[in-house]
Amino acid sequence: MTAATGVSAAAERSTTAHVVWASALGTAIEWYDFLIYGTAAALVFNKLFFPSFDPFVGTLVAFSTYAVGFVARPIGGAIIGHYGDRLGRKTMLVATMIAMGLGTFLIGCLPTYSQIGVWAPILLIILRFVQGIGLGGEWSGAVVMVIEHAGDRRGFYGSLVQIGFPVGVAASTGIFALMTQLPEADFLSWGWRVPFLISILLVGVGFIVRLKLAETPHFKEVVERKEVLAQPVLEVLRRDWRSFLLAIGITVSEVGLAYLLTVFTVVYATTKLGLPRQVILNAVVYAALVEFATLPLAGWLSDIFGRRALYLAGGVFSVALAFPLFWFLDTREPALITFALVVTMTLTHALLFGPKAAFMPELFRTQVRYSGASLGANVAAALSGGFSPLIATALLAWAGAYWPVSVYIIALSIITIIATLMAPETARDALKS
């Protein structure tokens, strides 16, 4: 047994269920850490860190710092993916949790612009960058860990890890919804900090759980055969470039939708429509809660009908619902807004995100699986995820209406549909060795 595997005799006896549970829990905590920034950017950062701007311009600037985390994600994906393919999946999953936890906690400790001037937004951007580095290797490591333990039910077991996203959305949005019940002065003074500060407790729990994980049998085989690559990231770009480009293409729509539905809708409802924050925050929470069921369902269906079928359905629904989503939002009726977000999240994001945990790693062989999945997911996230709220807000300001945002959603969806049609079906094949 080598030090590289980090596998103990006790860890060898870990079941797939334990691996799924530990990976999903850790991913939920990491998503919570990453997503509370987006909610804070939509609600409070423009006032506390960029107060010299017009409120709408301040929101644009706040979303620019939000996008910094996504710019950092490919860098984190390359670094963490490299070591994940060299040292093992478990080692890097523990490292990402430490990076994310510290970055998030320190944001909650930051002085504001009124206290230290320009250093406040500078430090905010630095910590957001640290968050992005951590998340860059988190999701891919968690799904590779599960997929390499899961046998023939990779779609279903992988989709259970994806539940971490709606858990993070519901928890991050829900705690901000609770904090907004405070008087405005208290919320701006200390209430907004609470979601960031409590993350340190969640990270502690996730850290302990992940220490008990077993390394995957596929990675151990690579180590035993002495086939660990010296430069797995370069190998992805040199030999697996087609899979890398397909991974980006199938992801841009899903990751863009994720942040348009959970972040931009908050801005649109509160600034354009003048709705109370509670209305849209509650709708986002309910939509996220529904994904607890729809994500595993989508993963399960992808084991039966294939990854491509689910992706094509998600892409088509994304095109079809791009305009109706805003028709319902514009009614200003809480029940209709909630209905629209639930249906849209279910028929678009869930159908794409559920099978993604299996589809993305299945495109790559074991020696570069962590690096390939990390790069594919995070380059796509940098291109469409982090910039989607910023682009959508800018389009809204330019046109004074939602229609360019709907066109933007359709454009992203068409890219995903084309990439899916070009991708191989991987559901019924063994993992590439």
TrEMBL record:
Keywords: Cell membrane, Membrane, Transmembrane, Transmembrane helix, Transport. Its main location: membrane. It is found in: Cell membrane. It is a multi-pass membrane protein. Residues 19-428 form the Major facilitator superfamily (MFS) profile domain. Coiled coil: none annotated. Pfam families: MFS_1. It comes from the Bacteria. The chain crosses the membrane at residues 31-50, 56-80, 92-113, 119-144, 156-178, 190-211, 244-268, 280-302, 309-329, 335-354, 375-399, 405-423. InterPro entries: MFS, MFS_dom, MFS_trans_sf, Sugar_transporter_CS. This is MHS family MFS transporter. It comes from Bradyrhizobium barranii.
